[in-house]
Amino acid sequence: MTDSDRRGDIGADPGSADTVPTFRAPAPEDQSQKDHLPPPPKPAAFKGFTHSACEYYPCHPGVRRAFNCLFCYCPLIERECPGPYQLFTDARGTPRKDCSACRLPHDGIAPSWTFIQRWLHAPAFGGQPQSRARIRALSQALRPPVSE
């Protein structure tokens, strides 16, 4: 057994007791590479974008603020939500939501993000027509707690 084995040196050559693992610092970045990098994202850029080159844009008329295309397919389709929807029955007899009249997930980048995040905690869609009383109760339940 060599001294290296007894000391437990990582990466040491078993044939040499004097070999010590070396670590190299990363090479400094080349300035020409930095010139070709995209600018850093704006704060909260992940909350949405507008894809004005889309062949369906604008897919929901009446949006008054920056159109948010992040929720092109609304994640609330399987949740109870306050958006205006109509019920229809699919070929299997299952009630579904037609949300084509809803603008809530598209109306403004930050407001639509906040709206979706809040309503993702709503219960699953139960196949019932909208009820103001049920939506009001859900809205109260989903409100963030007031900090003291």
Automatic annotation (TrEMBL):
What Pfam families does the record point to? zf-like
User: Which segments constitute the Cysteine-rich small domain?
Assistant: 49-107
The annotated region (Disordered) lies at 1-44
Fetch the InterPro entries from UniProt.
Zf-like
Which stretches does UniProt call biased (Basic and acidic residues)?
1-10
Q: What is this protein called?
A: Uncharacterized protein containing a Zn-finger-like domain
The scientific name of the source species is: Thiorhodovibrio frisius
